[in-house]
Structure formats: C-alpha cells, structure tokens
Amino acid sequence: MTDKAGSTGPQEASMDDIFRLLLFIHFGALLFAATTNLIMPALMPRMMALGAEGRTILGPLTRQLSINARLSLLVLVLTGVLMVAIRYDTGLWANPWFAAKMAFIAVITLGIGLSFTPWSRAIPPKVFGSITRIALVGTIFCAVMAFN
Ligand code: HEM
After folding, report:
1. Which atom of ligand 1 is nearest to the CA of 104?
2. Where are the transmembrane segments (predicted)?
3. From ligand 1's centre to the CA of 131, what distance in Å?
C-alpha cells in the first residue's frame, strides 16, 4: 500500500523525512552560529581586560567557539545544498528572496574565508562580528520570505 507521498508504509523513511532531518540539523547549526556571534562581543572585551591570565583561561574557550561556529556554517551550507537538491531545482534562483539569501551567505563565507588568510588582520574583530551579524539576520529574513 502506498500513501500520497508514494511511501510504502509508516516504517519506511521517505525523502520528506530526510528533508525534515536536514532542516532540523540546519536549524541546529544556525543556533550554534548565531549564539557564538552574539556571545563573542560580550566575551572578548572581558577576556582582554583580564590581561595575560584572562587569555590563558578564556583563550582556548573563545578559540573553540570560533572553530565550532565556522564548522556550523559548513553544516548550514551542506544541509542547505542537500535540501535544495532533494526538493527544488534551479528554478529556485528565480525567487529573488532565495537569491538574496545566497548573497548574504556569500558575504558570511567571504568573511570567514578571509579569516583564514593574512588579510584577517585587516578586519577588526568587532567589524567582522557586526558584518556577520547583519548578514545572518539578512539570511534568516530572506529564508523565511523565500520559503513561506
Ligand atoms: C548562513 C547560512 C544559512 C542560514 C542562516 C540559513 C537559514 C535558514 C532558515 C532560518 C531557514 C528556515 C526557513 C523557513 O523554514 O521558513 C532555512 C531553510 C532552508 N535553507 Fe537555509 N540557511 C543558510 C544556508 C543555506 C544554504 C547555503 C542553502 C542552499 C544552498 C540553504 C537552503 C535552505 C533550504 C532549502 C531551506 C528549507 C526550505 C523549505 O523549508 O522548503 N540554506 N535556512
């Protein structure tokens, strides 16, 4: 017996289930990226104010948060691309909100990419954080507009 989605039974995982799982992971990664982006401006000045001791104690924490946030962006992109592959086609680009979402993501990815190069010193951490924050908000807004 098949239902409307073409599944043969309740036990069988459908592409819809995989899509939902990917969307769930997408939101989880978004939580991580956004939380780190919000906590950093509160954490960094306090760490710096504590001097060498502060850097010894909190340095590994802020480094770990920063690595995890970058990994979560990677997870966002991977799950996003997979969801598009499962449910949409290239016609999605005709939706200006989707195109705008991708433009914001390009800004975030470019910033993170630069952070791995010697140019990272050219962007003060505060500016980097603000740009990423604005682009994240823009991405979420465009995602909601694009898909609802
Ligand atoms: C910084 C990176 C990203 C953020 C913050 C983000 C944010 C979001 C949010 C908030 C939603 C939920 C929208 C809703 O259900 O109303 C969403 C869904 C989605 N995103 Fe992303 N996203 C990111 C990257 C990507 C990328 C790179 C792609 C694809 C190339 C992508 C494709 C999708 C798709 C296909 C959905 C689900 C649409 C649906 O429910 O049918 N996302 N994203």
Report:
1. 1
2. 18-44, 65-86, 98-116, 128-147
3. 19
- Domain map (residue ranges) of the chain: 15-87, 91-148
Q: Whose CA is nearest to atom 17 of ligand 1?
A: 143
Listed residue (3, 37, 13, 18) closest to 138, CA to CA = 37
Q: 31: Cβ–Cβ under 8 A, 6 or more apart, which residues?
A: none
Instruction: Say if CB 37 and CB 69 are below 8 A apart.
Output: yes
Ligand 1 — pocket residues by CB below 6 A?
23, 26, 30, 73, 76-77, 80-81, 83-84, 87, 105, 108, 136, 139-140, 143-144, 147-148
Q: Which amino acid residue places its CA nearest to atom 40 of ligand 1?
A: 147
Q: What is the pTM of this model?
A: 0.90
